[in-house]
Amino acid sequence: MQSAKEVLKAKGIRPTFQRLKILEFIRDCKEHPTVDDIYRKLIKGIPTISKTTVYNTAKTLVESGAINQVNVTGTETRFDFAGEPPHHHLVCDKCGRIIDIAIDCPYLSRREMEGHLIIEKHGYFRGICSDCRGKTENRAD
Amino acid sequence: MQSAKEVLKAKGIRPTFQRLKILEFIRDCKEHPTVDDIYRKLIKGIPTISKTTVYNTAKTLVESGAINQVNVTGTETRFDFAGEPPHHHLVCDKCGRIIDIAIDCPYLSRREMEGHLIIEKHGYFRGICSDCRGKTENRAD
DNA sequence: TATCACTTTGTAATTATTACTAATATGTAT
DNA sequence: ATACATATTAGTAATAATTACAAAGTGATA
Ligand SMILES: [Mn+2]
Ligand SMILES: [Mn+2]
Ligand SMILES: [Zn+2]
Ligand SMILES: [Zn+2]
Asked: pLDDT tens, B10-63?
């Protein structure tokens, strides 16, 4: 597996301490963290880190393709490590988690649609996750 | 075709003047307007309307299913009339427009995936729209 | 070492949204 | 038609997310 440092080098981004820690956290966190999530986690180990750095770095990483931006709530931006295979997401109405869904979407390979050039594909569902369905008080069926 | 008033009545939402105008604008506007777009348009004809009313009404309409929320930028919420047939969206990197794409997605009919209950499906693409591609200065291929 | 470009940080400003409350309008019962 | 209860609207304040900006820090290079 490629280290975070190698990912950054390969993208031509100088692997500073802050960038490495931010990228590693996004890679290891399975919960599609927000900027605030990242900041609150990293400030524990790097007391001087600023939220602006998290914003700047996230933007740099998204532009380079090292991470993907996940837009599912409309009011906050979340992030996902781009090393994962392409997948869609489920936003759970009950627990709020954003869960990966592996789907075999026939559009993932399309580079053009109706004359439009396609650069990124995003799919997400709103619903109730299997964990929350399992809890009897939430079963509707 | 069903009038806006009929849509609201069918949903059990009292068809006030403001709600009718907001719903009609969202129905007739093909550009997936933001709250601010709606407010700036309607204030011309209804000088007393407040942005809070637009927020409240949009929330009511989304919850009732009369309109859909479109989350593609991460920082602002947009809306789409739910009377349209299901479709995906393209966000153009050049002109910023959000354009409907009719696709035959095999997941639109799925009510369950990997044990999760599916309530809504959303798909969008980032890319360059056919209009912007047509302009020679933007052709990359 | 001196320089220069890049990076980080802290602060201020902006934008989108939500919270709260008073005023207004509407439906119902009398 | 009037009074009352309730829903809706509007205005303002508060919160949250993001962006803008400039000073300070860092590190590679001449
Ligand atoms: Mn994911
Ligand atoms: Mn649409
Ligand atoms: Zn859940
Ligand atoms: Zn375009």
From this structure: 999 999 999 999 999 999 999 999 999 999 999 999 999 999 999 999 999 999
Domain locations in chain A as residue ranges: 1-82, 85-141
pTM listed for this prediction: 0.92
Q: Tell me the shortest Cα–Cα distance from B117 to chain A, in angstroms.
A: 5
B107 neighbourhood in chain A, CB within 8 Å? 103, 105, 123
A1-82 has which CATH code? 1.10.10.10
Nearest to B114 among A75, A93, A130 (CB): A130
Query: Residue A119's closest chain B neighbor by CA?
Result: B127
Those residues of chain A whose CB sits closer than 8 Å to some CB in chain B are 69, 71-78, 90, 92-93, 99, 101-103, 105-107, 113-130, 133, 140
Work out whether the CA dihedral B104, B105, B106, B108 comes out positive or negative: negative
